[in-house]
Write a structure and sequence with these properties.
Radius of gyration: 19 Å
Distance between the termini: 56 Å
Number of strands: 0
Oligomer: single chain
Order of helices and strands: HHHHHHHHHHH
Length: 169
């Protein structure tokens, strides 16, 4: 019932109002004790919101779900295919991404995504190596200044080979 009202509301609401409603929906989905039917309906509504024409709405969806282990994986994966600013939120925070997926995202060549991955709370050695090999300057700089990330010697050498002209490197 609530989700049905939500879906009616978003048909006529402005992008800002839809974004606020999406934030409330993701909070309810992640932090409320919902019945199975309500949870499925909320997931279906979020799936529909992936097609919202406003990036403000899709960004609100990404912000609401990015850090949660309870976020629906299909929606997280779909948000990774959105525009860079939205996908970067997921790349930076999602616990659903494995090392191999992060390496693939780095290899995709999008500097914003590479930078977001370099800023993750945990950057595995294999992901740091991928950033060293193909990452943009800003992503490599981020790895170099972080004291909590282990970067293998060969990766450090690769960063120097690629970006040694930069003063920070």
């Amino acid at each position: 019932m609530i989700v049905r009202h939500f879906l009616r509301f978003i048909q006529t609401a402005s992008a800002g109002e839809r974004a606020e409603a999406v934030s409330a929906l993701t909070r309810a989905y992640l932090h409320s004790d919902m019945s199975g039917d309500f949870r499925e309906a909320a997931e279906a509504a979020m799936m529909m919101l992936l097609d919202d024409p406003s990036p403000v709405v899709r960004r609100a969806l990404a912000e609401g779900l990015a850090s949660s282990e309870d976020a629906p994986v299909a929606i997280v994966v779909a948000l990774l295919q959105d525009q860079s600013e939205i996908a970067a939120l997921i790349a930076r925070h999602s616990p659903h991404l494995f090392d191999a997926e992060l390496v693939d995202l780095v290899g995709g060549g999008d500097p914003l995504i590479q930078f977001a991955i370099a800023e993750r709370s945990d950057v595995p050695v294999s992901v740091a190596a991928a950033i060293a090999e193909v990452g943009c300057l800003e992503a490599c700089q981020t790895l170099l200044v972080r004291h909590d990330v282990t970067v293998a010697g060969f990766s450090l050498a690769r960063i120097v080979d690629r970006h040694g002209h930069d003063a920070l490197v």
